[in-house]
Amino acid sequence: MTAKQCQAITQDGTPCRAYATNGSDYCFHHDPAHAARRREARRNGGLARHGRHIGSTGQAEPAPLDTAADVATLLRRTINDTLQLENSLHRARTVGYLAGLLARAMELTDLEQQLASMEHILELRRNSR
Predict the structure, then answer these.
(1) Which residues does 61 contact at the CB level (< 8 Å), separation at least 6?
(2) 27 with 19: CB under 8 angstroms?
(3) Mean per-residue pLDDT for 80-96?
(4) Which one-letter DSSP state was computed for residue 67?
């Protein structure tokens, strides 16, 4: 038995891509018989979010951002702060994105250190002449 496609047309004029619920031509979101359940689900979702404590804002000390190492430190702090939030797809995406930026900042930190070392060696050579 194959699943049946929802027969509704979306607001942009395209067919709904969801599957119809058992015994209906429509998915949960478009079935007129489920209107009351959809309202209840929206209400419950709003109540679940109401009153959550996200955390304080604007309280952190300004972070120096002069080097890649400074940026890496800020990214580490931000990743750890983000991990304290409620687990969600948005949090996972944010952490993944920030981790990628951190990896790049760490590479740049290494390059900055190598460059500083080379500059120091060149300075020593100039001074020894």
Answers:
(1) none
(2) yes
(3) 92
(4) S
Q: Say if CB 8 and CB 27 are below 8 A apart.
A: yes
| Cα(26)–Cα(35) distance, integer angstroms | 12
Which tokens is 45 given? Answer: 């979702």
One-letter amino acid of 5: Q
Tokens found for residue 126: 């100039």
Domain extents for the chain?
A: 1-50, 68-127
Q: Is the pLDDT of residue 128 over 90?
A: no
Neighbours of 71 (CB within 10 A): 20
Question: Would you state the structure tokens that stand for residue 25, as one six-digit string?
Answer: 């031509």
Torsion of CA 63, 68, 69, 72, to 10 degrees: 70
- Taking the C-alpha atoms of residue 3 and residue 86, their distance in angstroms, rounded to an integer, is 34
